[in-house]
C-alpha cells in the first residue's frame, strides 16, 4: 500500500526549485555577439512555436534574471517546471515550452568580445 502523500501532485511539480543548466559546449567557438543574436532570434520566434505569449515572456524574464528572482517569476506565472534547468516547462493548460540551453547560459567555449 502506498501513501497518498508520497506522490507528487501536479501542483508540487510547478514548485520545483530551478537551477542553472549544466555546463555545455557549442558545436564550435562562438562569440558573445553571435550568442546574443541567437538568443534574440529565439525569443522573437518563440511564440510561433505555440503556447501563450505571457508564458514566453515570463520564461524570457526568468532566463535573464538571477536565479532567486527567476524562481519568483516562474512561480508567479504558474509555469510547471519539468526540468529544473528550465529546458522543459508547461503552462497550466498543458502547453509545452522547450528552451534551448543557449538562452539559459553561455557555453564553455564562448569567445569574449573586447
Automatic annotation (TrEMBL):
Residues 1-30 are annotated as: Disordered. InterPro entries: DC-UbP/UBTD2_N, DC-UbP/UBTD2_N_sf, UBTD1/2. Residues 15-111 form the DC-UbP/UBTD2 N-terminal domain. Residues 16-25 have a biased composition (Basic residues). It comes from the Eukaryota. It holds the Pfam family UBD. PANTHER family: UBIQUITIN DOMAIN CONTAINING 1 PROTEIN-RELATED (PTHR13609). This is DC-UbP/UBTD2 N-terminal domain-containing protein. It comes from Acer yangbiense.
Amino acid at each position: 500500500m502506498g501513501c497518498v502523500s508520497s506522490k507528487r501532485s501536479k501542483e508540487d511539480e510547478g514548485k520545483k526549485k530551478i537551477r542553472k543548466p549544466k555546463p555545455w559546449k557549442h558545436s564550435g567557438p562562438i562569440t558573445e555577439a553571435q550568442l546574443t543574436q541567437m538568443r534574440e532570434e529565439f525569443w522573437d520566434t518563440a511564440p510561433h512555436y505555440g503556447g501563450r505569449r505571457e508564458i514566453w515572456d515570463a520564461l524570457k524574464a526568468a532566463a535573464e534574471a538571477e536565479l532567486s528572482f527567476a524562481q519568483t517569476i516562474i512561480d508567479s506565472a504558474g509555469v510547471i517546471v519539468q526540468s529544473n534547468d528550465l529546458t522543459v516547462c508547461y503552462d497550466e493548460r498543458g502547453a509545452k515550452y522547450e528552451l534551448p540551453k543557449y538562452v539559459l547560459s553561455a557555453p564553455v567555449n564562448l569567445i569574449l568580445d573586447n
